[in-house]
Structure formats: structure tokens, C-alpha cells
């Protein structure tokens, strides 16, 4: 039994000014988390209990599958990060010790874990191995926000698998996917597993576990008729049949004046055509193997470019940067809005939906003018066509079943097949069955503990406060003690013992506050069952049992209270 008077804990009536979303507001108002600095929070005793429950479920599911827990250092030497080539990443917070040696705070632990196993695991006979830890990370996020959802300092469970072959690594990946499903099912969260961006590593073996929530930072596209789900960052946009007959046949090229028409929408209106039948020209700078170059992208007027697709398809080191207006002018001779592909010296890539466009309307590279009847083969050269636009709600699902629907999610977990990215750069090898030295096949698997706990609150709250899922509620039972007599105290002690024997936990509000204040706070803290015990009912042998989720209130005899509680919780 824990008493409020032991907590050193307060609740607040007002929402903090920097809290934009309900879960952040509620956790702060309930006194569960407290900001020390942007993105850096203290977890109070109640929040910590919920986090520990999340961690316990995570540990349990990992241990069941033979994963081994270890704990790696937070402070990591620069030399290690230079081996992988990641020293200098903007999210790394670096520091020096008194001897002027460089270190960083652990933002992730691929480098340390690879160093840990190299030279120790020397033979395929010692594989596979999956190691994990639950530990504090630091990432110098540009814009920490939403409380624990995007912190600078946060607790993550990170696991790493080591295998002898691609096939075996895929097996470890599949196993971890099951572990993750079990974890999020046990937590009782509504989530989707979505295809995610594999970045420079390539392949399709990376998925995110997304807790569904309107405030989610990620847009997900899911089929209304199958289990297809992908992060919009990578969701394929299928080529669809072109509806516009006027763009499908070649015409002669003609320049026409378009003063004051700056956007595709303006132009579409003035020509009385659909934006999708016009062609948008965009300019980028990309870096490939450290060489910087400019390129041009064409897509339908109604589409948005997906720069992750550009990065992946063109094998760029990073997402490309859009040219500034000044750079566009230097390249084309015109301002954006009057630019097009004719006469350009950069490579030109076009979205695959433009394959049917034989007569395009594009900018003339002369301010205030456009061209119509532009033919790709005749008037300029397209390097290649590929899928480079953002997929959209309403488009056909890439698996051929149904239509895409847009939903939002909070990424709480991420599983990733890494291949030899780290083992090769850090020279971590073992001897395979043929006695040949090979680099480990690796995978990494992360869950944000604080983000998951807060996502649960985001998914489960009402106008009065948090409604903790039973799986991670800081306490199971909240006793609002209205009077403090010896009889009541000894009843509460006795009741606590009985329910604690059932594995349930009890929190007693023993403050000298008015009943109204106590009820409001009990609603705000949101533990699944509330008991109200006061002199008046007690002398008649009655207490009140309140179900926080359904708000159902029942009177119970003193004797039957345990059964009533079990009815709600067990
Ligand atoms: P995001 O795209 O949200 O920045 P990420 O791809 O950088 O996430 P990973 O490196 O895959 O995240 O980290 C694994 C998990 O750690 C994430 O799924 C998320 O739950 C959690 N996480 C990552 N960054 C943060 C953060 N700044 N604050 C809280 N949790 C985080
Ligand atoms: Mg990140």
C-alpha cells in the first residue's frame, strides 16, 4: 500500500503552456512527469511505476525467446563512432573529459554492441545471439515536443541480433516481430505494423509498430480491404490510367503568356483543366558518394514529391534539398512558377504517372511564360521514370486490394534488418562452416518505453483524466479516504492485504482534502478501480466501488468489496 502523503507529489489544474496534446497535458497535470529542460523530464513515482510495467512486459517477452539482457555504457568514445562513420551526426551530443578526450552520449548502441561481440564470438557455432538492454538514450532532437513522445533524453529498449547468414538474420527478424506483437498485444494498445523506410541499407525488411492516434507524427496509408499498411514515407504510389485525353497525343510546341500565374492551381484555373493534367517541375541538390549535383524532377500538378523515394532510388547519401529561388533562377533563368524542363542541363527524372503524357504544359524558363504541347521525346530528355510522388488517400492499394486510407500513428517500435552495415565497417567477423571469415549479419530492434507509456495515455483518456489500461496502471486500486478513523484505517489495511495477495496494488489518498478535490484527482490519476470510504457509509457497512473506465458506481458491503474489485480487475 502506498499513501499519497509519501509521494512528494502534486496535481495541477492548469495545462502547461507547452503541452499541445492530451497525454502530455494529463501526465504533467497529474504530476507524473516534470520538465527539467526542453525534452528532458523527471519521471515521478507514479509515471515510473507505469514505465516499469511497460519494461516488465518487454523483458518478459524477450526473455521467453532467449534474448539476453545486458547494460551498455551511456558515455561512448569518439573512436568507436568514427569506425562506423557516424561521428558528427547532428543528433549526437558530444563532450570532452578533463584529458580532452572526445565522447558522445549514447543515441543508439549499434557501435557499442558490435564492439562488444567482436573478438568474443568467433565461430558460427556460437550464433545466433540476440542481446538487449533497457537504457537511457540522449538524442539532440531539433524540436523536442509532446512530453515523452519526442524527448531529448528518453528510455529505450534496444535489441541487436547476430547471425551467420542473411537467411538466419531474417529468421531472427521474424522472431523479433513476433516478440513485438506479443508485447503490444499485452499492453492492450491499438496498433498497426507498417512498412517503413529502409534508407541507405535498402531492402524491404524494416517495419514500424505504430500506435494509432490522431496526434501521431506519422501518416500511415492502410488498405480498406486488406492488411496492407505503410508509412507514407515509403508507400508505393501505383501508376494509374491517365484520364486526360488531351495530354496523350503529341501537339506542336507553343509558348503562351501567363503573367501573375504563380501556382499550378492558378494555371489550372486559367486554362480550365485539372491540376493533374499539368506538369510540375522541381529542382533539387543531392549528394551521392560525397559528390554534389543538381537534378530536376517532373510530376503531375496534383502530386507532391516524396524525397525519401528520390533518395532511395537515386542512391543519394541523404534526402535531397530543394533549390532556393535564387539557385533556381541561376539554373533556369526564371523564377519558380515559370520553370520547366526544356533546355535544362541537369538530369531529369519523371514520375511514372507521366509516362502517358505526350503533350505537356510546363514553365518556359522565362518569367511570365509557359509552354504547351511539350513532348518529352522531342523537346527534352527524361533520364528515367519511376515512382517518386507521395502516395495518397483514395489511391489504389499497392497490393492490388482496396483503396488507401490515411490514418495517423505514433511510432513506438521499429524493427530493422541491418545486414553487414556495422559489422563490415567495424570489422566484426566470425568463421563460418567453411572456415571462412565473414561479417555478422545483424538486426536491430527498438521500443521507446516512455513514448509507449504516453501513447497508451493518448489512446486511453477522457475529459476527466487518464484512464490507464490495466496492463500498465501505476496502481490498480485508488482508495479515496474521506475520514481517518481507527476503524476505517484498520479496514483499509486489512483490505489492502487481501487484494495485494491477489497481486493487485493499492494507492490511498490520505490527504486532508475535501471529497470533491479527492474525486477530481482520482479521475485525473486514472487508476482502474476507485474505492470511496467515508464515515457515513462505513457505519452502515457500505463503501463505494467505482470503475474508472465505465464510470459505473456500485455500493458494496464491506465484506464483498474484494469480490467487487476482482470483478473489475481480474
Ligand atoms: P523517429 O522517427 O520518431 O525520430 P527513430 O526512427 O529515430 O524515431 P529509432 O531510432 O528506430 O527511432 O528508435 C527506436 C524507438 O525509440 C522508436 O520507435 C521510438 O519509440 C523511440 N524513440 C526514438 N526517438 C525518440 C525520442 N526522441 N523520444 C522518445 N522516444 C524516441
Ligand atoms: Mg529520430
Would you mind describing this structure in some detail?
The protein is α+β, with helices and mostly antiparallel strands. It has three domains: 49-235 and 406-457, BirA Bifunctional Protein, domain 2; 245-386, YbaK/aminoacyl-tRNA synthetase-associated domain (YbaK protein, Alpha-Beta Complex), CATH 3.90.960.10; 475-569, Anticodon-binding domain (Rossmann fold, 3-Layer(aba) Sandwich). It has 16 helices and 32 strands. Strands 4, 8, 9, 10, 11, 12, 13, 22 and 25 form a nine-stranded mixed beta sheet that branches. Strands 1-29-28-30-31-32 form a six-stranded mixed beta sheet, with helices on both faces. Helix 2 packs across helix 5. The longest helix has 22 residues, at 166-187. It starts with a strand and ends with a helix. The mean pLDDT is 95. The structure holds adenosine-5'-triphosphate (ATP) and magnesium ion. Adenosine-5'-triphosphate binds at residues 108, 139, 141, 150-151, 154, 156, 411-414, 446-448, 450-451.
Instruction: Give the low-confidence spans.
Output: none
CATH C-level category of the largest domain: Alpha Beta
Q: How many β strands by DSSP?
A: 32
Which secondary-structure class do the elements indicate? alpha+beta
Mean pLDDT: 95
- What proportion of the residues is helical, as a percent range? 25-40%
User: In percent terms, what proportion of residues is strand?
Assistant: 25-35%
Number of domains as seen in the coordinates:
3
Number of contiguous helices: 16
| Chemical compounds bound to the protein | adenosine-5'-triphosphate, magnesium ion
Q: Which architecture name of the largest domain does CATH use?
A: 2-Layer Sandwich
According to CATH, the fold-level topology of the largest domain is: BirA Bifunctional Protein, domain 2
Which term fits the overall shape?
globular
Radius of gyration: 29 Å
The name of the CATH superfamily of the largest domain reads: Bira Bifunctional Protein, Domain 2
Q: Note the main sheet.
A: 9 strands, mixed
Cα(first) to Cα(last) distance is 19 Å
